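FAQ: What does the model actually see?

It sees only this:
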Amino acid sequence: MAAIMIISGESSGELYGALLANALKSKWPDVRIIGIGGQRMSEAGVELVSRISDAFGIIEAVASLRKLKTAYNNAIEALGKFRPDVLVLIDYPDFNLKVAKKAKALGIKVLYYVSPQVWAWRKGRVPKIASLVNRMAVLLPFEEKIYKDAGLKCDFVGHPILEEIQGVLAKGNKTEFKTALGLDPDKPLLSLLPGSRPHELKKLLPLMIEVVRQFRNDPEILKGNREYQFCMPLAPNTDEQKYHGFLETLKKEGVAIKKGESVKALAASDMAVVASGTATLQTAFLEVPMVVVYKMSPLEFQIGKRIINVKHISLANILAGKEVVVELLQERANPGETIKELKKIMFDIEYRGNMINQFKKIKGPFIGKKASQRVADIILEMVIWRK
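And it is asked to produce this:
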């Protein structure tokens, strides 16, 4: 029996791992899949040798070194024990490149699926990646050339979140999704996506509480006679107990908390406040007008400004090559600025329409591509090549 190992390090990557596992099983029912991931990968039939870490950012990574070391040791042990035909690495470069080095030494073929953001920072990683992996599968159109120029075989496969979106949209419409989420089908919906990483939740949950409070009492919004409802879809791996106080306050403010329902909530939404990350692309693909917010520690922000080589931080703006959605960072990520932008989306029809039109253009290169199916085919090619 052939064996494939998949390593993911966070919620979005874990979704891609689960979709890939399902695609592999559909093409190759008796394949054995092991890996590092979370609940979704486990439900997709992946035998987990370790669960994903919640460590992100400089401070969090330092605080979770023991957990990361345990996961790394489990990964290396699994490589030796199972000798997978192909090792699939999903983003998470600091961890995954170390595992790739061990895999190469063991003669195991390595596919890197979901490129680290080398176009934003640490471009010097490209030669290192090319020296450690056999093939790349990238999610963004412009990433393909970066690796091909380094002499590495690379495929732009599309984005797996489009598969998730299409799967959800096939099951209902905006009104039906509101009802399924326990919301009023006749009221407009503002969704709040605070991210999945601990530092994001810690920084952005208080902001979103204040946004809801002030939004509900804003004179201009009240005058417009639009009674909004609110929903916060949390990432599936969110530790709700850890953020219990914030979540209870949100519930008291009338916010519906739904775990693992981001696509359904966004598909039901009229607009959204979104933490910078994959969720901004998800929101753009669903053509939901948004405002992007982000906060980090002052130290991380200052370091980031010096090493990150991009004008924008949200994927929607990066793909558009210009500001399509407003990005509120650090001190600008406050209730007043956020509500000001939300009101512009609500009351400026031309502004809202232009944003949606840009989202349609962003989505264009991804339509028709089936990322998980393509990556599964690449893995099968690599297995045949190896044997």
